[in-house]
Specification:
The protein has helices at 8-34, 42-71, 79-101, 106-115, 117-134, 138-144, 146-152, 155-169, 175-208. By secondary structure, the chain is an all-alpha fold. It is globular. The structure holds protoporphyrin IX containing FE.
């Protein structure tokens, strides 16, 4: 399935549009929390919303390659924005945890990070995302060359620790975490079979040419 061709200017505009749309759930959640429209524990609800959107953008970013390989849909121009949206959501999620949830009590925060495995995993995910976010620009791609690709493979362990963090944060596993566990398994599993799969496709194409 081929997408309509965009001019460089149209592509640039669509990327900014994606950022604008991508931040809406977070801003809407903040507005609802700040105006008392969230029932129950608004801090927890907002913290969860930010964590879930971070995970969604991570998965969407990792879906770009299989979509291009298997369905011919090329969304590569939007992949960086998806990754950066994931990073900003994780950072916002962490900030809510530090401030509204833990009230900047650094003693309990450090104890949480050291003793609660799901917090340790979340922290590992955030720390691994930092170098990716810092190097998500043309200058770094040019400067790092092939090392840039190697560095950005960190996104795989990031997805693993994110899903584990999510699953371990829950008291019981419902359909929603199962959905993300399956999605992450498919997205990561695809990377394991991608090289032989693409080689087979190339061979078949060469034989029929
Ligand atoms: C790659 C990084 C991260 C991702 C993708 C992520 C994602 C998530 C998700 C999806 C949830 C569950 C939301 C739900 O139940 O609806 C969650 C919960 C949570 N996360 Fe994260 N998170 C990350 C990093 C962190 C970090 C660095 C911290 C703090 C140090 C943190 C603290 C929490 C807390 C406190 C909860 C709520 C647990 C509860 O309800 O008791 N997360 N996160």
């Amino acid at each position: 399935m081929a997408l309509p061709k965009l001019s460089p200017r149209g592509r640039e505009t669509s990327i900014w549009l994606l950022y604008a749309l991508g931040f809406i759930p977070g801003l809407w959640g903040f507005y609802q929390g700040a105006t008392g429209q969230i029932a129950g524990d608004p801090v927890r609800v907002f913290e969860h919303l930010l964590g879930l959107w971070a995970l969604r953008f991570l998965c969407l970013g990792l879906a770009v390659t299989p979509l291009r390989d298997l369905a011919g849909v090329n969304l590569i121009a939007w992949r960086r924005a998806l990754g950066l949206l994931a990073f900003w959501y994780v950072l916002a999620h962490f900030t809510v945890y530090l401030t509204l949830d833990r009230g900047l009590q650094f003693g309990t925060i450090l104890a949480d990070i050291a003793k609660r495995p799901y917090i340790t995993l979340g922290m590992a995910g955030l720390l691994m995302l930092v170098p990716l976010a810092i190097t998500s620009n043309r200058w770094s791609i040019r400067r790092l060359g092939s090392r840039w690709n190697k560095l950005h493979k960190l996104v795989y362990p990031i997805l693993i620790v994110s899903v584990l963090h999510y699953a371990l944060s829950l008291k019981s596993i419902t359909a929603e975490p199962v959905f993300y566990i399956v999605t992450a398994t498919v997205l990561l599993g695809y990377r394991l079979v991608r090289t032989p799969l693409m080689a087979r496709r190339r061979n078949r194409r060469n034989q029929t040419a």
